Amino acid sequence: MVIQMSEIRAYLLAVVIGTLLRGYDCKNVLFIVIDDLRPDLGCYRGSDFPATTDPPIYSPNIDQLASKSILFKRAHVQQALCSPSRTSFLTSRRPDTTLVWDLNAYWRNVSGNFTTIPQYFKNHGHMSVGMGKIFHSPNVSGHDDPISWSLPYHRENPGKLEGHERSWKFVPDNDTIADPLQDMRIAKDAITTLGYFAKGGKYQNQPFFLAVGFIRPHLPFISPISYSKHYPQESVILPRNPLPPVHMPPVAWTNINELSQYDDMVALQASGAINSSLPDNTTLGLRKAYYSAVSYLDAMVGSVLDELKRLNLDNNTIVSLIGDHGYHLGEHGLWCKFTNFELATHAPMIIRIPGLTDQGIVTESLVEMVDLFPTLVEASGLPKLPVCPPNSKSVRTCTEGESLMPLVSKPINEMEKRRVFSIPSNSVYDQYYGLHHQNRRTSLYGMARVLVYHTYSGLDEITRERTV
Predict the structure, then answer these.
(1) Does residue 33 have a pLDDT over 90?
(2) Taking every annotated instance into account, which residue ranges of this chain make up the domain Sulfatase N-terminal (predicted)?
């Protein structure tokens, strides 16, 4: 029998990881999902995501978490839209398997009875509790997928200060005392729930999986006015790439979609057409409001992490923080998400594993959100997920990703993965995929049996290198 070197390396790596895992006990998971958060954060500042403000985004709590975590600089979602992306990373299946490409379908009805991350932990003895926005909305998740949770799921509705008349606004801090904003109430719910698992709590000694889904910086960009002080107007700049790439095919474009629903945008009569853009003062106002909402959100995350530490739960709790996709803030003239440009598919992914990532690890290996499920499972010492077969519709529990634990011991490891992100079909093009490689990205547009390849290089995705 001939043993390949690749098999030897895989065996030795498994031994190393197994040895590390035996050295600590992480029985709990705090799973934080943030809506529309692109990796425009202090901890991501650098060549992978140049800061768009000076000083940079004020995110001290997420940055502090990142300093004791493994920070994935180049993580991408499977589809840059809330429900498809969340369904994908929660089941570790790609949209082509879940058949969720829009905001209407529930995967258990249209595809298969796939196990979710919280459901898996519940099935393995954890108390699974969720609040805020984890699944997209009740109507596309069977009312927040009750089978995933040990206790009834808890959502918080927007408060009186969070109306949808304007696309952004700052509210007086004092007004939030009597009428807390939605994320304030979600953070408070999370803090209360953590107390149940602390010493003296009614669920003490019970391992937990706590999922906390924050709303901001999703539209409307609302935050207490105090957070805007971090962004004096002169520090907010216009996008340096305000126009689409040269020879960009129309299918790569999306209009200003959800932004157009707000009264202030309707008044502008913005078309969202290719080569159009919003007025400069509108763009600057929206960008400042988005940044302020990120800083407000960061404070809410910090309040939960502070309570985790105060209750002495931090030393045996894995903390995972991700965004559900990236976001356009006027780059290419685009707003929101729902494209395959890197700004839409690139999302933050941070995982803290006590005892393994305490010194901070940064990796630039390309990874995908379908990798999250198997990574959390392996980090928790639970039975590993099997790899999905080519047709996995009848397989309840498997992964179309792979565990990222090897990057904990070797962050420079080149994990050879094919990057595929899809958006739904439309009347002209059957399917559109974006492939991210180490130094470039490629878009494939399928129409009948003809494929057109467009490759863009550089962070701004302005240069078209070739068309075949």
Answers:
(1) yes
(2) 27-381
